[in-house]
Structure formats: structure tokens, C-alpha cells
């Protein structure tokens, strides 16, 4: 008995093909995916992976999600306590800074005041050179008739007028302990023999110093009456460069703590 062939009837005639349904086309596309379908599948997979990752990250961003109310209150109290400790630390550091600044300012002011006093005392004691406005006095003695009393009178008038530094002939610094003696060659000042003309440089108020020497029967009149002459020049800047070496006291001692 002959076998029947597909698509043929027993009589040997071909039967018409059955039309494909939507299910048949879907199954066929799944068995043989096109290139576009493969790419679309990959993209869908990547999109899903990204969505899962985003959800996980979002869940990690907020550490307090899922905590109970009591736990949240405890966490808040801990943060507030840490904030108060930080504020106390900041306040303590600011107080320390203020104390250091105040102490440093007081120390700087004391040091500056001490430096000023040392400089002032150095000028008055003759141990420091000085410069400033003042006068230059030139005393001529053509007949050799002047003596130490004339110079002493002039120095005393300058002191009374507030002179701050005095120098004679660029050789001798005049201070409270300066000695004057007559000498055959002139006048001996602190052991140094000086001869005319006597040039006295004095630092102080030019007008006040000049006025102290020129009043009636004062220094200038006395010198001129005894055959000498005096010329007074007001100078914007007088330089007194001779300095003295301070002598160590023989009897006096500084008071401790002063």
C-alpha cells in the first residue's frame, strides 16, 4: 500500500497550505530572532539592571530610613550632644585666643614703653647719639679773656630752657656730671682741653633755646662785655654724635624687683 505524502490526498492532488496565525508568527520570530530584536533585548536587560542598581543606591543614601521613632529620637539627641560639645570647644578656643592676644598686646606695649624710656635715658645720660632740631652757638674769644664761667653760664641757660643734648667742638658730650676747668690753652671739659672758637651744638626747641641766651644781661651780653662774640644759628637738624661710656656705680645698687 503506497504511503501518503504530506500535502497530497489519496488521489495524489496537493492540498492548499494552512494560513499562519499570529501565534505561529510569534513562535517563528522567537526561534529565529532578527538583529533588531537582539539589540532590543540587550537594551531592555541593561535598563532593568540600571533600575535595580538605582533602587539599591537610593536605599543606601538615607541611613535613617527604616529606623523606628525611638531610634530616630536617640540619633537626634546624639547629634545635639555632639553639637553642644563642639560649641563648648569653640568657645574655649576663642577664650584662649583672646587671652593670648591680650597678653601679647600688653607685653608688646610694655616692651615698646621700655625701649622708649631706654632711648630717652640714653640721650640724657649721653650714652646714645642724638639728632633733632636745635641751635648751633659759636663763641669767639679773640683776646683770650673768656673762662669756664662763661661756658658754664651758657650751658646752664640751655638746661633751664629744656635742652636735651649738648656737644662742644664735636669732642665732648655735656651731661650733668661733666666737669669744667680753666686751662692755659683754653678750657678743660671732662679732661679734654678745648680752645676757641667754642662751637656748642644743642638739641631742643630752636626758638626757646635761642631766646634763653639772648635776654638782657644774659649769656650773650656777658661774653660780649668781656671781649668775646656769640653767633646763634637755628638749625633744622643738629647732630650730637659723641657718646659716653656709662660708669658703674661704686656705692648704689638697684632695688630688687624694681
Automatic annotation (TrEMBL):
Annotated stretches, region: Disordered: 1-31, 87-107
Pfam families, per database record: DUF881
Cellular component, GO annotation: plasma membrane
InterPro entries found in the cross-reference section: DUF881 (IPR010273)
Entry similarity comment: Belongs to the UPF0749 family.
Record-given protein name: Uncharacterized protein YlxW (UPF0749 family)
Biological source species: Nocardioides aurantiacus
Amino acid at each position: 500500500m503506497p504511503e501518503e505524502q504530506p500535502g497530497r490526498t489519496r488521489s495524489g492532488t496537493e492540498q492548499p497550505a494552512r494560513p499562519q496565525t499570529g501565534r505561529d508568527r510569534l513562535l517563528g520570530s522567537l526561534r529565529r530572532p532578527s538583529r533588531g530584536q537582539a539589540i532590543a533585548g540587550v537594551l531592555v536587560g541593561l535598563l532593568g539592571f540600571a533600575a535595580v542598581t538605582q533602587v539599591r543606591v537610593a536605599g543606601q543614601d538615607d541611613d535613617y530610613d527604616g529606623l523606628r521613632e525611638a531610634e530616630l529620637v536617640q540619633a537626634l539627641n546624639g547629634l545635639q550632644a555632639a553639637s553642644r560639645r563642639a560649641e563648648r570647644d569653640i568657645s574655649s578656643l576663642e577664650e584662649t585666643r583672646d587671652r593670648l592676644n591680650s597678653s601679647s598686646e600688653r607685653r608688646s606695649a610694655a616692651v615698646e614703653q621700655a625701649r622708649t624710656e631706654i632711648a630717652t635715658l640714653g640721650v640724657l645720660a649721653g650714652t646714645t647719639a642724638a639728632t633733632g632740631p636745635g641751635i648751633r652757638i659759636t663763641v669767639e674769644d679773640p683776646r683770650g679773656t673768656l673762662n669756664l664761667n662763661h661756658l658754664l653760664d651758657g650751658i646752664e641757660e640751655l638746661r633751664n630752657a629744656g635742652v636735651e643734648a649738648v656737644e662742644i667742638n664735636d669732642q665732648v658730650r655735656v651731661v650733668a656730671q661733666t666737669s669744667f676747668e680753666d686751662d692755659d690753652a683754653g678750657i678743660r671739659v671732662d679732661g679734654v682741653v678745648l680752645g676757641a672758637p667754642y662751637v656748642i651744638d644743642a638739641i631742643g626747641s630752636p626758638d626757646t633755646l635761642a631766646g634763653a641766651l639772648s635776654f638782657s644781661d644774659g649769656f650773650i651780653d656777658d661774653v660780649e662785655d668781656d671781649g668775646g662774640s656769640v653767633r646763634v644759628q637755628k638749625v633744622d637738624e643738629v647732630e650730637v654724635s659723641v657718646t659716653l661710656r656709662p660708669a658703674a656705680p661704686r656705692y648704689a645698687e638697684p632695688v630688687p624687683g624694681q
